[in-house]
Design goal:
Radius of gyration: 17 Å
CATH topology of the largest domain: Rossmann fold
Strand order of the largest sheet: 3-2-1-4-5-6
Largest sheet: 6 strands, parallel
CATH superfamily of the largest domain: HAD superfamily/HAD-like
Helix content: 40-55%
Low-confidence stretches: none
Number of helices: 11
CATH class of the largest domain: Alpha Beta
Strand content: 5-15%
């Protein structure tokens, strides 16, 4: 039934979500805006930077009157500092190879800005495995949880959305894939995953949960 596998990047291929969340929450707390880990994940993980910054700016206005003029610079600086510890998620390259070897179309559909996406994928030696079908939400009008980036990726590889499986780690990402008409598998192998994360992905619409890339690669060989 499935002809293509479309991977999210952050939290699925590279273990960046836990790092970004740590740096961003630290920077926001210093400015007087604090979030619990669970609330932060539920609201912001999987969002494009523009949507994330708009939402955080709204929170500043509601709680503190106004956001600082250098909010974006502070957040990006804190994120960059954490990204020095970036690592590939174990087995990611094997999962991409397994998808290729078993005849699936392969794409990456990410909320990351294009230059960040390219930098992370190349740094983690994943770019060549997925290229040329690596797509940033910079290319579409509406980022996740809207379906645009998944629909764009499916169109580029020439596979109808109903024949695609989207691999997603966030509620926003799951909603995006579901809205695109794809089957979504919730991925639980990222460092940010804890507690009831799987239940929340299922509630958002994930058809099944995948614990790690070894399990995913095995499923793709069936």
């Amino acid at each position: 039934m499935f002809k293509a596998i479309i991977f999210d990047c952050d939290g699925v291929l590279v273990d960046s979500e836990v790092l970004a969340m740590r740096g961003e929450r630290r920077a926001l707390a210093k400015l007087g805006l604090s979030y619990s880990r669970e609330d932060y994940m539920r609201r912001f993980i999987g969002m494009h930077d523009d949507a994330f910054l708009a939402a955080v700016t709204d929170d500043f206005r509601a709680q503190l009157g106004a956001a600082p003029d250098d909010l974006e610079a502070r957040l990006m600086s804190a994120r960059r500092e954490e990204m020095k510890s970036l690592a590939v998620i174990a087995g990611a390259s094997d999962a991409i190879r397994s998808a290729h070897d078993n005849g699936y179309g392969v794409a990456v559909a990410s909320s990351s800005r294009a230059h960040f996406l390219e930098s992370k994928m190349k740094r983690m030696a994943l770019w060549e495995l997925a290229a040329p079908h690596i797509y940033s939400a910079d290319l579409v009008t509406h980022a996740k949880p809207a379906p645009d980036i998944f629909l764009y990726a499916a169109a580029q590889i020439g596979v109808a959305p109903e024949h695609c499986v989207a691999i997603e780690d966030s509620e926003n990402g799951v909603r995006s894939g579901v809205a695109a008409g794809m089957t979504v598998w919730g991925f639980l192998g990222g460092g940010h995953v804890s507690g009831d994360h799987g239940e929340r992905l299922t509630t958002a619409g994930a058809a099944r949960l995948v614990n790690n890339h070894a399990d995913l690669a095995a499923d793709l060989r069936k």
